[in-house]
Design a protein that fits this description.
alpha/beta, 4-stranded antiparallel β-sheet, 14% strand
Length: 377
């Protein structure tokens, strides 16, 4: 079975020959510091690391590492129209005007300034909204998509749409003010959401008219959970966010036969049924340490309607602080919980962080390959 067939079969909630493996998306990658050590551990030559996500400082995983771990996916990404630009004191500004400053000794970047923090409704017309159809976003995209589809057998995952229907508006407005906008009756929250939805719909249309036939999965994102529960109430989600997510998913599915993968961190169990309702095919990262996100329980309740992409090992506790044997045991547990009947694409829960020993990353993927053969047991 080819990697592409393996991923498609799993997403169809049938059992392939083994559980597909993913590594290298912007939420299943490796922090640059851990990646340097990983290459050395694998006996691979050092390389200059390309950064995939500036905020999280995770890397573009090289082909030799993907092949070593028998990864079934390859990433295709829409680019920002304008890269981060320095604004002094180690800070950068992105294409939306959000300012980012180094945190944790430069290992990550935190938001420091939000361009619409003090805006009113009239200011939205004066804001410099990025152009979703800027040709710089698609430079080389068609050629890479066609090559991956026609010259390899990997499952092609398209990303780069950002957290357009909830997360990104909160970055540009500022979290506290944006959450207030959603409930204060001023109309500001809905106005901002509509602007971002228009951006997302136009970006999806333009992108998928170019590469829709070549991709197997389209990844979108909106982080809706904390460790303990949803960020916003289910009522607010269902009245304001869900209809806009539905519109985006419907636009994507009108332009491609690819499955839609939603990344949503934290405790989002209360929304999983809604995700199914709007047409989401798979959920990532399956944050098993958050409240209500037990892997066996999720599989039992939603496994006939939703695939789970991730959940393979807790990256908050087990992967950084456990032993190699702890990692192996965790992988065994999660595969047994999520893989039966198909519907599981293996990856760690979110990005592998800077303090994870390379031996544990090797154990993570080698164990998943060894134990992911069907029938799992």
């Amino acid at each position: 079975m080819t990697p592409r067939d393996r991923v498609r079969t799993a997403l169809g909630r049938s059992e392939p020959d083994r559980v597909p493996l993913d590594l290298g998306l912007s939420v299943t990658s490796v922090h640059r510091d851990a990646y340097v050590a990983l290459r050395a551990c694998l006996g691979l030559p050092p390389r200059e690391t390309a950064i995939l996500d500036s905020m999280q400082q995770v890397v573009v995983v090289d082909e030799d590492v993907l092949e070593r771990f028998r990864v079934d996916t390859r990433q295709l990404a829409v680019r920002p129209a304008r890269p981060w630009r320095p604004v002094g004191s180690g800070a950068f500004r992105d294409e939306w005007g959000v300012t980012w400053r180094p945190a944790s000794g430069g290992r990550y970047y935190d938001m420091a300034e939000h361009p619409l923090a003090h805006a009113g409704l009239k200011d939205l017309d004066r804001f410099a909204w990025p152009d979703p159809e800027d040709s710089a976003r698609f430079d080389g995209l068609v050629e890479r998509a066609r090559r991956l589809h026609e010259e390899t057998s990997y499952a092609v995952v398209l990303s780069g749409f950002g957290e357009a229907t909830f997360g990104l508006p909160s970055w540009v407005r500022g979290h506290a003010q944006f959450y207030q906008d959603l409930v204060d009756g001023s109309g500001m929250g809905e106005a901002i959401l509509d602007r971002f939805l228009d951006y997302a719909l136009r970006l999806a249309t333009c992108t998928l008219e170019l590469v829709g036939p070549y991709v197997d999965v389209v990844r979108i994102a909106d982080d809706l959970g904390t460790e303990l529960g949803p960020i916003i109430s289910p009522a607010t989600y269902r009245s304001l966010i869900k209809p806009r997510q539905r519109a985006l998913v419907e636009r994507i599915k009108s332009k491609t036969r690819a499955a839609v993968l939603l990344h949503s961190c934290g405790s989002v169990r209360e929304f999983v049924g809604d995700f199914v309702d709007i047409g989401i095919d798979a959920l990532n990262p399956v944050q098993v340490s958050a409240r209500g996100m037990d892997s066996a329980s999720l599989k039992k309740e939603f496994g006939d309607r939703m695939s789970f992409w991730g959940g393979g090992c807790d990256t908050q506790r087990v992967l950084p602080f456990g032993s190699v044997e702890d990692v192996r045991a965790e992988v065994r547990r999660r595969i047994r919980d999520l893989a039966p009947g198909g519907g599981h694409i293996f990856a760690a829960v979110h990005n592998i962080q800077f303090d994870v020993a390379p031996e544990k990353i090797v154990a993570l993927y080698d164990t998943a390959y060894e134990l992911g053969r069907y029938p799992v047991g």
